[in-house]
Amino acid sequence: LQSKYSNFILLPPPVQNQKVILDVVFDCKGRIDGHWRDTRYCDVFHACLAGEQKRSYGCNQIGEKFYFDDVSQKCEFTSRNANGCPSNQYFTMIEPIPSVPGSQLSTEAPTEPWKIFVQSREQFGCSGKQDGFYASRWCNVFYRCFTGIATSFLCPKMPSGSRLWWVQHGSPQSIAQETAACTWPCETSRRCSSPGGIVVDSSSTVTESQQEAETVFTQSLCTSASDGSIGGG
């Protein structure tokens, strides 16, 4: 999908999962603008624009394998299509779903600093919620509910060091979403309205900031053209 801006492409995130991939080279020469699945890894796809590889993504393997489908332009369940990945090669390992101890549904205590920070400021639970993905009080954090267990996710970092934002940030926390995808803040087409702004993590501290969220939005790729053809905003 070509945007009104001349030097970038607005890339619709796949419905299931995606994450940013930085180290898989792909030849976009001769290909039309859009998403193309990698020639080797079924779960990796690339954003081609004007014959150049602009960005690369991978399907998050949460609980089972996903592959990128060229027709639907989404990460699809491999289990639902035996021919979905002819090469049977995947770049990303499957992330195990937390086990359920007996009949009690619980979430393990966090050990990572950002998870400790998130849990200390927002008590999110999956009791009574359907399986799916849910908004948090931050634009770069989201939750997943699966069989009553809550898992939190922090979006990957951009080359600038700031983090991508969840594509459904600001959605009602009571409503499950189908998308587990992070993208450039400007590509969400809306500023951060979540009460905590964004989680800002360094090597030693974790904080939250609405002011930093505004800065990240205005400085993200969609509004910083190198050729000077894009105005600010």
UniProtKB/TrEMBL annotation:
<dbReference type="Pfam" id="PF01607">
    <property type="entry name" value="CBM_14"/>
</dbReference>
<dbReference type="GO" id="GO:0005576">
    <property type="term" value="C:extracellular region"/>
</dbReference>
<feature type="domain" description="Chitin-binding type-2">
    <location>
        <begin position="126"/>
        <end position="157"/>
    </location>
</feature>
<protein>
    <recommendedName>
        <fullName>Chitin-binding type-2 domain-containing protein</fullName>
    </recommendedName>
</protein>
<dbReference type="InterPro" id="IPR002557">
    <property type="entry name" value="Chitin-bd_dom"/>
</dbReference>
<dbReference type="GO" id="GO:0008061">
    <property type="term" value="F:chitin binding"/>
</dbReference>
